[in-house]
Specification:
The protein is mainly alpha-helical. α1 packs antiparallel against α2 and α1 packs antiparallel against α4. The protein has one domain: 23S rRNA-intervening sequence (de novo design (two linked rop proteins)), CATH 1.20.1440.60. 32% of the residues are buried. It has four helices and no strands.
């Protein structure tokens, strides 16, 4: 896998863009506890990609990518809840969750690629 920095990774670009989208979407939300949980999970995805990419080993990078995958799953669950309690529209929730599924798939592919380098 050839890249100079995490900013070049498409999955980082997509996940950081999604984090900004989440912040904007939930800015007016008055349910501060859920808003905080959602925004923390959203920011955690690209943050763990970035942190892991700067670690000393591929194994550590994989570990941080798996943290990102966990945060993506956590965020999907929170988005479903936000939709059910009418904090966001069904269309917005579906759009965000489709993006999260794509990001999760990209993370899975990156982990698989990195694992093949360990063999």
């Amino acid at each position: 896998m050839a890249y100079q920095s995490f900013e070049e990774l498409v999955v980082w670009k997509k996940s950081s863009h999604l984090a900004v989208t989440i912040y904007r979407e939930f800015k007016p939300c008055r349910d501060y506890w859920l808003k905080d949980q959602i925004t923390r999970a959203a920011v955690s995805i690209p943050s763990n990609i970035a942190e892991g990419s700067e670690r000393e080993s591929i194994r550590e990078f994989i570990r941080f990518l798996n943290f990102s995958r966990g945060s993506a799953a956590e965020l999907r669950a929170q988005i479903y809840i936000a939709k059910e309690i009418c904090l966001i529209s069904p269309a917005t929730a579906n759009s965000i969750n489709q993006e999260l599924k794509q990001i999760s798939s990209m993370l899975h592919g990156l982990v698989k690629s990195l694992k093949s380098q360990l063999i």
